[in-house]
Amino acid sequence: MFDLKGHLKLLVETHAPSGHEGTIREIIREAWRDLVDETEQDKLGSLIGIKRATIGQSDGKPARRIMLAAHMDEIGMMVRDVVDGFIFVHRISGVDNRVMLAQPVMVHGRKPLPGVVASVPPHLLTADARKKYPSFDELIIDVGLPADKVNELVQIGDLITLDVPMVDLNGGRVAAKAMDDRACVATVTACLEALKGMSHRWDVYATATVQEETGLLGARVAAYQIEPDIAIALDVGFAKQPGVSEDDALEIGSGPGLGLGPNFHDKLRDKIKDTAKYHEIKIQDDIIPGASGTDAWAIQISRDGVPTALVEIPIRNMHSPVETLDLRDIERGGRLLAHFIASLDDEFLSVIEWTDLKENTEKAEA
Amino acid sequence: MLLKELSEAVGVSGDESAVRKLVIEAIKDHVDELRIDALGSITAVKKGTGENLPRVMLDAHMDEIGFMITGVDGNGLLRFTNIGGIDDRILPGLRVKVGKDLLQGVIIWTPIHQNRDQNVVKLKNLRIDIGASNKDGAGKVKPGDRVVFDSNYMEIGEKMLRGKAFDDRAGCSLLIDILQAGPYPVDVLVAFTVQEEIGLRGAQVAAKFLNPDVAIALEGTTAHDLPDPTADPDEDLDINPTCRIGSGPALTVMDRSMITHPKLLAFLRKTADENGIPYQIKTQLGGGTDAGQIHIANGGVPSAVVSVPCRYIHSPMAMLNRDDYAHTLDLLKAALNNLTFDVIKA
Question: Which of A51, A258, A363, B13 would you label with A202, given CA atoms 20 to 30 Å apart?
Answer without folding.
Answer: A258
